[in-house]
Amino acid sequence: xxxxxxxxxxxxxxxxxxxxxxxxxxxxxxxxxxxxxxxxxxxxxxxxxxxxxxxxxxxxxxxxxxxxxxxxxxxxxxxxxxxxxxxxxxxxxxxxxxxxxxxxxxxxxxxxxxxxxxxxxxxxxxxxxxxxxxxxxxxxxxxxxxxxxxxxxxxxxxxxxxxxxxxxxxxxxxxxxxxxxxxxxxxxxxxxxxxxxxxxxxxxxxxxxxxxxxxxxxxxxxxxxxxxxxxxxxxxxxxxxxxxxxxxxxxxxxxxxxxxxxxxxxxxxxxxxxxxxxxxxxxxxxxxxxxxxxxxxxxxxxx
Length: 303
Known about the structure:
about 80% helix, about 300 residues, single chain, globular, disordered C terminus, mainly alpha
């Protein structure tokens, strides 16, 4: 489907494409912009609107701007996974990419990377505007830079495979939402924690380092055709992301174990004591005609 804004956006991308030698960028630039706009709207409009209605207690008690922003970021992150993961998986069977892992091109990769770059552009800008953690800023900027290079074309085989890392993000965000909706130390969080660590270790550590070894081998094999600074930038950028994954994996193990120590018991007790208050609120909402889906899925009301 062609939109009236496609042509001017492609024209706008032409000088950028020439400057950075990204010949496939103009065709996919409109989708990148639409992706950025979509994730920005989810962050600024959709998440606050839905969260205030589905999780009125938990979202309503967030007082600081930072806490509200972190909640909305997690909401956007979940949206991104469910959008980009099917796109990335659709590229795995491409024979053109398998035949040439560094320089191969497929329009499916263009669409996938355009959506991903829109997300990482939003992510990088949010990390700059609402600076909270250097690791998140490095992650956003590194991913945006590396994935933009796919439009040369370059690394078309690897780009969608690295996006499969996002699978673990589903369970990471569920873990965080369970914390914020009164389920710290619960059975649900324990089950999700096991799935989170297993998924993160499988896709980001095991498969991640397997891909990295393949990637470094591809760079080495093409060293005669690549400028030295390319090899250094991509090798160091890739290794940086892998080291961040290892760091985050360690932190996740510590964080999940901490929630099942004795210190988490007062939180579970407080949640149990709040059951009757939440139950009264549930009946109040039902009598006011509140949608059933909000009652069923709201961690606030099931605490």
